[in-house]
Amino acid sequence: MSGSGKKIVAVSNRLPITVKRGDSGLEIKSGAGGLVTALAPVLRNRGGTWIGWLGHSGTLEIEGLLEKASIDTGYELYPVWLTEDEVNNYYHGFSNEVLWPLYHDLQTRCRFEPRYWDFYLAVNKKFAAAVETKSTEEDFVWVHDYHLTHLARELKERGVSRKTGFFLHIPFPTLDIFLRLPWRRQILEAMLEYDLVGFQTLRDRRHFVQCVQSLVPGARIRGRGQVLKATYRGRELRIGTFPISIDYRGFATDAASEPVSTTAWYLHEALPERQVILGVDRLDYTKGIPERLWAFETALERYPELKEKVTLVQVVVPSREDVEEYKALKAEIDGLVGKINGRFTSSGWVPIHYLYRSLDRTELLAYYRLAEIALVTPLKDGMNLVCKEYCACNIEGKGVLVLSEFAGAAAQLHRWALMVNPYDVINVSDAIHKAFTMGRKERRSRMSRMRANIRRQDIFWWVNSFLQAAFSSKLDAFPQVIEDYIPDQQKILVRKFHP
């Protein structure tokens, strides 16, 4: 499905699908997460390509499944195959035991194993080879996140000329924390090989600039505003701030649909005469789920009027279940939920409804519609799109957003959300009570302003601002694709490109 003409080639650690062996053989399902939510509407029907790992070691005979999945998604899917050693050392090792905790200010969780670094470089070479195969000099190669900081450097090592951009979806640490990384200078120099380096917030960009100025001799950075200019080793690049967003119109439209409205009504019937507080998180120690549960327990202690009048629906999406640290986190969450429910449950009322599973889109949007209060309280987060999805789906304008100061979204929404320090259980419990007692007029005023902000700076605004900074081009420069099919064969006949 590569088509012709200029296209966006997205490169990330994971493809936006998962492959699992079911009762009837191999099955492909849509992936989850902020990057999939953000990028899928952009690539769809534009002849784009997404390069990534399928999420397991080894290879599978799935060419036919991938072809069908590419048709279904509207863009080509191209897998990079990793061995078990590469998965253990590049993904579980360097990416998730070094960079992930370090970039989230949790350096005590880091394991600086030298072999991790060697595998990290080797896998970045694999991805560079895939980019060389699936792109042309006319394409824009958009690399995503901390797993692939070295891809632009590896392309140049191969003599491959491409326009490249890198976007970091997670926070970038301060200089004093980044200094602990044994490969600190190599990471910075590799990032400076891109034509554009993007961050979620001004804070993250400031931290990166400080690290470059302190650790990379010869690098010069100048300018002000959203995009800075830098020179290094005789070439110029740009460093910008681009807060990622969502397909606002898609979420708002789907939230108003009959299936979502019906599901929300049934959920409401099961939780009558009380305000629903919603938390939706992937299982991860950066999300602050235990701290949130402690804060909710504290709120019930300090404000008895909340009893039987609120219900916390906490959704935890399984993640990295084979990692001991995540097993321990789940056990902690399970224990806290049991303890709080055992302590406060009364006839007809259970304080916490705990769902440890993924929700399909209809059910998720129904919970967004249902909830009067959303608790988005990560200990540290690059952006956090849950809060934006919640606002987009809050079409009645009745919701209150309680938001962590340490989420990237705080830079955009702090004037209208109730801002909290997730480490301060008293502060969060007070915010829960304030949200519970907030009047309809104030709720509508705060929510309407957040929705307007997210609608204005949606996912297409994000892409346009990034492409404009990269090479003075917008999404319109990448042609729309119309596909004609033979219905009985489901094969593409014609791909027509329209500007």
Any chance you could write out the topology, listing elements then pairs?
Layout: E1 8-14, E2 17-22, E3 25-30, H1 34-43, E4 49-57, H2 63-73, E5 76-82, H3 84-103, H4 114-134, E6 140-144, H5 151-157, E7 163-167, H6 175-178, H7 184-191, E8 196-199, H8 202-215, E9 220-222, E10 227-232, E11 235-241, H9 248-255, H10 258-270, E12 275-282, H11 289-302, E13 310-317, H12 324-344, E14 352-356, H13 361-370, E15 373-376, H14 386-393, E16 400-404, H15 410-413, E17 418-420, H16 425-437, H17 440-456, H18 459-471, E18 480-486, E19 491-498
Parallel strand pairs: 1-4, 1-6, 4-5, 6-7, 7-8, 8-11, 12-13, 12-15, 13-14, 15-16, 16-17
Antiparallel strand pairs: 2-3, 9-10, 10-11, 18-19
Summarize the structure.
It contains 18 helices and 19 strands. By secondary structure, the protein is an alpha/beta fold.
3D structure, described in words:
It is a single chain. The chain is of the alpha/beta class and 499 residues long. It has 2 domains: 8-244 and 458-498, Rossmann fold (3-Layer(aba) Sandwich), CATH 3.40.50; 248-456, Rossmann fold, CATH 3.40.50.2000. Helices cover 43% and strands 23% of the residues. The chain is built from 18 helices and 19 strands. The strands form 4 sheets. Strands 5-4-1-6-7-8-11-10-9 form a 9-stranded mixed sheet, with helices on both faces. Strands 14-13-12-15-16-17 form a 6-stranded parallel sheet, sandwiched between helices. A two-stranded antiparallel ribbon has the order 2-3. Strand 9 (220-222) and strand 10 (227-232) form a beta hairpin. Helix 10 (258-270) crosses helix 13 (361-370). The radius of gyration is 23 Å and the shape is globular. Residues 482-499 have low confidence and may be disordered.
